[in-house]
TrEMBL record:
Coiled coil (residue ranges): 77-104
Record-given protein name: MerR family transcriptional regulator
Annotated keywords: Activator, Coiled coil, DNA-binding, Transcription, Transcription regulation
Organism annotation: Streptomyces atrovirens
Limits of the HTH merR-type domain: 1-71
PANTHER family assigned to the protein according to its UniProt record, in alphabetical order: HTH-TYPE TRANSCRIPTIONAL ACTIVATOR MTA (PTHR30204:SF90), REDOX-CYCLING DRUG-SENSING TRANSCRIPTIONAL ACTIVATOR SOXR (PTHR30204)
Family annotation (Pfam families): MerR_1 (PF13411), TipAS (PF07739)
UniProt superkingdom: Bacteria
């Protein structure tokens, strides 16, 4: 039994782009091809995809997922046991944090202590709480999330205006660079990628280069992030990904 790309996207809730990307990097190579050359996935391929999505949900970068799944000493039961342990630990941590911050969350979601009028005055048509629930679900148990909450809770209306002004200025310059044909591996693009990393480190939480590389992958693999960056200029999400990776390489080589 084999399945087409369209069938797999329906089963797993992933995009065609994601499946193609996994194939390109060797993480999930379909077992067969149709007579027309289209990808065909076996039941074993679907099992591997399930494992990939488990680890991705737990925040593992793609290279670590590949290393885990290709470990010759591991068996499928070992993967399931590991994932169960990680999920159980994550659930317990989230419960502890929820109990500690429940009151604060009700009063000031995402730490932005502004009236609705002030919030949209600062952020325009971008709702700063749009992905708050998902951010908490994905990273609520991490020190980075806790640190971002601590910092945001102290920010004033003027602070948030400065945050947005920096974002707007960076976006304008990066869009201009892409429009002018600047290469992701060029010094100007890498400098803007470094500025992006420092902005998050300055206002939210410290972003090491390895974490920034994970962000870069997410900007392409997550359709919402990709749509956000590509709305500035088509292809900008992929361009930024490559610039972040190039910048990380020059600083960690």
């Amino acid at each position: 039994m084999s399945y087409s790309v369209g069938q797999v996207t329906g089963f797993a809730g992933v995009t065609v782009r994601t499946l193609h990307h996994y194939d390109d990097i060797g993480l999930l190579v379909p077992s067969g091809r149709s007579h027309a050359g289209h990808r065909r996935y076996s039941d074993a391929d679907l099992d591997r995809l399930q494992q990939i999505l488990f680890y991705r949900e737990l925040g593992f970068p793609l290279d670590e997922v590949a290393a885990l799944l290709d470990d010759p000493d591991a068996d499928p039961r070992a993967h399931l046991r590991r994932q169960h342990e990680l999920l159980t630990a994550r659930i317990e941590k989230l419960k502890q944090m929820a109990a500690a911050v429940e009151h604060a969350m009700e009063a000031r979601k995402m730490g932005i202590n502004l009236t609705p009028e002030e919030r949209f005055e600062v952020f325009g048509d971008k709702d700063p709480e749009q992905y708050a629930a998902e951010a908490e679900e994905r990273w609520g148990g991490t020190e980075a999330y806790a640190e971002s909450q601590r910092r945001a809770a102290s920010y004033t209306k003027e602070d948030w205006k400065r945050v947005q002004a920096e974002v707007d200025d960076w976006q304008e310059r990066y869009t201009a660079l892409v429009a002018a044909g600047g290469q992701p591996s060029g010094e100007a693009a890498m400098d803007l990628a470094e500025e992006h990393r420092r902005h998050v480190s300055k206002w939210y939480f410290e972003v090491p280069y390895e974490m920034h590389k994970c962000f870069a992958e997410m900007y392409v693999s997550d359709e919402r992030f990709k749509a956000y960056y590509d709305s500035m200029r088509p292809g900008l999400a992929e361009h930024l990904r490559e610039a972040i990776l190039a910048n990380a390489a020059r600083h960690t080589a």
